[in-house]
Each structure stands twice: as C-alpha cells, then as structure tokens.
Amino acid sequence: MKARGMATAALLAFVAVCIVTIAIRGMRDTRREAPEAIAAPAPSGLTVVVYYFHGSVRCASCNLIESMAKEALERRFPEALKDGRLEWRTVDFDEPANAHFKKDFSLAANSLVAVATENGRQVKWENLEKIWEYLDEKDKFVPYVQERVGAFLREE
Q1: Domains observed in the chain
Q2: 32 close to 124: Cβ distance less than 8 angstroms
Q3: CB–CB of 131/55 below 8 Å?
Q4: What predicted TM-score, i.e. pTM, was given to this entire model?
Q5: How does pLDDT run across 103-127, given as a tens digit for each residue?
Q6: Residue range 35-56, pLDDT digits in tens
C-alpha cells in the first residue's frame, strides 16, 4: 500500500511539472517594457534584480530551480551582487501583497524574471522561461541564466 501511495505522489508531481511546462511554453512576448508598478529604489546607473517567483506550496523541482539560479548568479556575478548592481530576491506570489506580480509579469507558474532599472526607472524585463526546459540539465541551466542576466548587466 505504501508503494502505491508513493507512485501516486510521483505521478501527481510529474503531472504538475508537465502542466507548468505547457503553461510556460504557451506564454508569448516575455520580453517587454517593465511595468511601472514595480518601482525600485532610485539608484544611480544600472541595477538588475533577478526574482524567483514561487507559490506557497513548493515542490522539489521548484526548490531545485531556486538553488541552481542563485548558485549561477553567485558564481558568475559575485562583485555585482556585492556592490548592489545585481540583486537576488525570492517572492511568494501567493501572498496577497505580492499577487500583483502575476499580472505584472504574466506569470503562469514559478518563474525566474530579470528586471533592469536605470537611474531608478525600469527599462525592461525578461521571464527566463527555459529554466523549466533545462531543469534536469545543470550544464545548460547555469550558463543560460548567466548569459541572460549578463545581457541585462551588459556583461555578455
């Protein structure tokens, strides 16, 4: 009976990941002008914030994405993180105060989103949707995140 419960849980997790993948692939136009509703502090120069958006209920895949993305940033951009040009933030979009992020960034599921501001004004954002495609391929996931964030920091 215990094996049956584990098999059911594994099947449900697989179905959930499939639904999230389909939803993300169905999203269009992930590169846009950033909405004004997500105002950052007014730094001088370029600042990039990388958000990991998640729900209150988190699966192993969601936690893995968060840890690999954070590691990718810490390995490639330690100085930018230290001097504030790059920020890492995790946000639970199920919390009422954060619900607007779903609309602001057209989020259908857990997502990694880079947001660039110049002199305190948001200039662009991108949902790094290939994170789900590369979930089981760290050798592709990490360079993908680093390349996309590097483009925002103008360090390609």
Answers
A1: 2-153 (3.40.30.10)
A2: yes
A3: no
A4: 0.71
A5: 999 998 999 999 999 888 889 999 9
A6: 433 444 434 588 999 999 999 9
